[in-house]
Design a protein that fits this description.
The chain has 268 residues and is an alpha/beta fold. The chain has 7 helices and 7 strands, in the order αβαβαβαβαββααβ. The chain has a single domain (30-257), classed as Rossmann fold (3-Layer(aba) Sandwich), CATH 3.40.50. The chain has helices at 2-28, 49-55, 83-100, 119-140, 157-173, 216-226, 235-247, and strands spanning 34-39, 60-67, 106-110, 144-148, 180-185, 210-213, 252-257. 36% of the residues are buried.
Length: 268
């Protein structure tokens, strides 16, 4: 009987250790040397602001903004679409990066997809953007790329596009085994905390294999960076957003690490 109980105890201990390793593994990894956060618009980095603030002191963090955001018109700002709005949003993003403690932003200057008319214009713009993203990867030589997943956060076509292009480039150039690609994703429970209806997409928790925690101090830096984007968020909306995040004391964000099974198969 004693031998049987000992065996049961050892088995339980083994399983508990495995669970612990799975939970703590992302935090136990050595921080990457260079992180490239690739997003579609000036202000999209707010989605993972606390994570960028966290790694600012651990890694060389670069924000790459794909489009110029010239069509991000809001009622409260009174700014028209066009070059004047582009200039304002660039300064806001520079402010946000400074508050997060990361490098100044890199702007790829693609046109916001909302302003493209016709399939030909879209095709040309996507081709150009893909070239610019690849050039930026070659320049920065990141160990890690953070970007949107297939859901695109809010489902915005530009959000989906940058994630798709990053994935395509890594697969096409054979970089998927040397650069770690992480797609950001909300869980269904997480999106319930926001009072605004942003139409956020979500991912089943089983398919989010990386959990990154952040401190209250790192979260406060993210709030400061959010406040830089005054053209995009009215003050009452920012207050509600920040309060919703403060009410959520779990202080974690989730990602899905893109991985390949390099085994050669002869059937499905």
């Amino acid at each position: 009987m004693k031998t049987k109980l000992t065996a049961i105890f050892l088995a339980a201990l083994l399983f508990s250790c495995k669970d612990k390793e799975k939970t703590e593994f992302p935090e136990a990894k050595k921080p990457p040397k260079t992180i490239m956060a690739l997003f579609a618009h000036p202000d999209d980095e707010t989605t993972i602001g606390p994570i960028l603030a966290k790694y600012a002191s651990l890694s060389d963090v670069h924000l790459v903004v794909a489009t110029d955001g010239r069509y991000g018109v809001t009622d409260h700002s009174g700014l028209p679409a066009g070059d004047s709005l582009v200039a304002v949003r660039k300064e806001e993003t520079k402010c946000a990066c400074e508050k997060l403690g990361i490098n100044p932003p890199h702007f790829l200057e693609a046109k916001d997809g909302l302003g493209l008319n016709g399939n030909h214009n879209f095709y040309v713009e996507v081709k150009t953007l893909k070239e610019r993203i690849q050039e930026k990867i070659t320049e920065l030589q990141p160990d890690v790329i953070l970007t949107f997943g297939p859901d695109g956060d809010t489902g915005h076509p530009d959000h989906r596009m940058v994630g798709l292009l990053a994935t395509e480039i890594l697969l096409r150039e054979g970089w998927a085994n040397t650069i770690d690609l992480y797609h950001f994703g909300w869980t269904k429970d997480q999106i319930k905390k926001f009072p605004q209806d942003w139409g956020l997409g979500y991912v089943h928790p089983d398919h989010l294999n990386t959990t990154i925690s952040f401190s209250p101090e790192e979260e406060e830096k993210a709030f400061s960076s959010l406040r830089c984007h005054k053209s995009q968020f009215a003050e009452p909306d920012m207050v509600k957003w920040i309060q919703a995040e403060r009410n959520d004391t779990t202080n974690v964000l989730y990602f899905r690490k893109f991985s390949l099974d390099n085994a050669t198969l002869t059937g499905f």
